Amino acid sequence: MTIEVNITGENDYFYQALEDRLIRAGILIVEKPKLSTIKIGIDTDNDVDILIVPGLSRNTNSRLVISIYDLLIPEGKNKWSSDILFEWLEHIKKDNDKTLNVDAIHYWVHIRDAIEAILVLLLSEEFSNIKGKLNITGRRAWSNYSVFEELEMLLLRYTNSVNYSHSLESLSKIPNPVKKNEKNIKERPDLDLLNKELLRAGGDGWHPLTPLRTGLMELLAQNL
Question: Which residue range forms the structural domain that includes residue 71?
Fold first, then answer.
């Protein structure tokens, strides 16, 4: 049986990526919902079956609320948390000194992983029984300083490649941001219910697959 979905909310990068993934999964997107149609709201006050909101939103007007924290969207500046990455990129490109809150921590998760989790839940035979609030975020903590340094290194390597100015030092200098993320870890949003529901849906639980470095490289590719 074909699943029908109606999506409401601001037509932003997240909306477009979600719609595209649902279509590729064989789900029919409709403008006028029927009784059998699953209604998805993206940060909206409409009456919906699934409400998807940025992590700090207080909007809980749905039987199932999916709150996404620290969402990395490479395509452009947005309201889903990754605007800070684009601000850093502009500072690096202009060689400006950026004052960072080096103690701040994010749990970055790529938009592909977040949408894939939503798709698994949507296609689950248990979907109608899923209720409450599910949090989506990355599992690993990343300090602002280490991510800024990673972004700076990736942009330098790109510039050197374009200008044929690589040196042995520039090619071998690959910092490991993981080693710098052990201190000042802030509490991560609870992922237990998300993991449980993904397992119940027949998946492998919550295991985001896209490395942060890949996401940052895509961000550079989309915005240079």
Answer: 4-223
